[in-house]
Write a structure and sequence with these properties.
With 258 residues, the chain is of the alpha+beta class. It has 4 helices and 14 strands. The chain is globular. It starts with 6 loop residues before the first helix and ends in a 9-residue tail after the last helix.
C-alpha cells in the first residue's frame, strides 16, 4: 500500500529509487497550510517533466470561494509528445483542516470510444466525465487518493481529477487557504512509478457568499438540496429560483389519463 509522502518516507523512497534504478521520485516538501500571505496566494501551479514522454502537471483552485461553499482542487496531466501515458493514481494533499474530510472526486478524461458511442463522432465531445465511487476514494496518510488500471492521456487532451471538499466553519470570509502538493503515478513503458510534487500547491481566498450561494447553502443545511454545481457564473437568484420552486413543489406532473 502506498502512503502519502512524509519526510521519513522520502528518504526511504529516494534510496530505493537509487538502488533499484527504476521509477522517479521527486522530494515533496511539507504541505503549506492555513493562512497564507496575500502576495503569496497563487491559485495555480504547474510543472513540466520529461520522463520518456513530456508531462505537464497542474494543480489549481478557484481564486475565491464563497464562505460555506465546496472547495474544488483540479489536478491535471497533459502531454505534447508521442507515447501516450496512462495515469494510474492521483493523490491530493489538501490543507490541514481538510485532511479528514472525505472529498467527492470527478474524473474528466479523453475517450475516443466514448465520443463515438455518444454520437459525437470524430469531432464531437470526446471528454468523458465520471464520478469516482466513494468507496474508491481512499485516505492515504495526509492525502486522499484514487487509482485505476489506467486513464489514457492523449496529446492535446488533458486528464483531470477534481477533488471537492466541504469546508469547515473556520473558513470565514477573508481567510486564505493554501493546500499541500500532489502525487501522480503514470506509466508509459517502462513504468516510471510515482512522481511526488510538493511545490504543486494551490491557494484560494474565502469571500462572503453571493445571493445565490447563500440561498443554496441554507437549503443544503436544511436538507432540501445541494449547493454544488447549481449556480450560474453570477450566482443570480433569477437563475436558480425556477429550479428551486420546481424541486420544492415536485416539478411538473403528468396529467392522469382519462
Amino acid at each position: 500500500m502506498t502512503h502519502a509522502p512524509t519526510r521519513h518516507r522520502l528518504v526511504s523512497l529516494a534510496a530505493a529509487a537509487a538502488v533499484a534504478g527504476a521509477g522517479l521520485t521527486a522530494a515533496i516538501a511539507a504541505p503549506t497550510q492555513g493562512t497564507a500571505d496575500a502576495a503569496a496566494c497563487v491559485n495555480e501551479h504547474s510543472v513540466k517533466k520529461t520522463l520518456i514522454v513530456n508531462y505537464g502537471l497542474t494543480k489549481s483552485v478557484p481564486e475565491t470561494v464563497g464562505q460555506g461553499q465546496p472547495i474544488t482542487y483540479s489536478l491535471s496531466v497533459t502531454t505534447d509528445s508521442i507515447g501516450n501515458p496512462y495515469v494510474q493514481g492521483v493523490w491530493d494533499i489538501p490543507p490541514k483542516e481538510l485532511q479528514s474530510v472525505k472529498p467527492t472526486v470527478k474524473i474528466k478524461a479523453f475517450t475516443l470510444i466514448g465520443g463515438i458511442l455518444g454520437g459525437g463522432g470524430a469531432f464531437g465531445k470526446l471528454i468523458n466525465e465520471e464520478t469516482v465511487p466513494p468507496a474508491e476514494v481512499i485516505k492515504d496518510g495526509t492525502s486522499w487518493k484514487i487509482s485505476h488500471t489506467g486513464w489514457a492521456v492523449f496529446s492535446g487532451q488533458s486528464f483531470t481529477a477534481e477533488f471537492t471538499y466541504k469546508p469547515p466553519a473556520s473558513y470565514t470570509a477573508g481567510k486564505q487557504i493554501t493546500s499541500g502538493g500532489a502525487a501522480f503515478k503514470a506509466t508509459p513503458a517502462p513504468p516510471l512509478g510515482y512522481l511526488e510534487l510538493g511545490q504543486l500547491t494551490a491557494c484560494t481566498t474565502v469571500r462572503a457568499p453571493n445571493a445565490g450561494e447563500a440561498v443554496l447553502g441554507s437549503l443544503d443545511s436544511a436538507g432540501l438540496g445541494s449547493a454544488e454545481g447549481q449556480l450560474s457564473s453570477t450566482g443570480s437568484l433569477v437563475d436558480i429560483i425556477p429550479g428551486l420552486i420546481g424541486g420544492i413543489g415536485g416539478g411538473d406532473k403528468e396529467e392522469p389519463k382519462k
